[in-house]
């Protein structure tokens, strides 16, 4: 089954990590894969563009079906392989509603992180458009977002996943953002519930199996977000 699948991906990319975790959770090891360097802009190569005209990673193909958006790929894998591996969409209406809510809030969470990282490292931001006031505003927006997720986890209690007691698609798609936050120096003392959630999931087999290779090579992260 997995032999009919191909994943083109980049190390440390949260969207790629989402699909990698989903594949592990659905017991779909053994798929075809190729690692591309985002730093070298290899995602703009003909090999990627032939499957994904946006020139983005992940690029995922199952047979003749191409699903390049990471959320879509995760939904697809759960839909096509419901009875295999981990059940990622709960049956209960309350749990399912919370899962969907957190999943799609996760897009805002990721965007708030991205804006700060892009500004800090001057990625994709033209020199004339870089302003300290904008960076300050973006950091404040990220702090507000982080406090919101702290409150969500606080309400659920220790040892909970994002939608309750079970690991779901919400965790598949949001954990890569949380992992990236701590890689860039977020303080677990300042955000203890997010720190607890991070420590819980980083030991999960699917997360360990898909941990970004260059993070393994250089375990020490950055301190970009240490003052957030």
TrEMBL record:
GO terms for biological process: glutathione metabolic process; L-phenylalanine catabolic process. Pfam families: GST_C_3, GST_N_2. It comes from Pundamilia nyererei. This is Glutathione S-transferase A-like. GO terms for molecular function: glutathione transferase activity; maleylacetoacetate isomerase activity. Residues 92-222 form the GST C-terminal domain. Residues 3-85 form the GST N-terminal domain. SUPFAM superfamilies: GST C-terminal domain-like (SSF47616), Thioredoxin-like (SSF52833). GO terms for cellular component: mitochondrion.
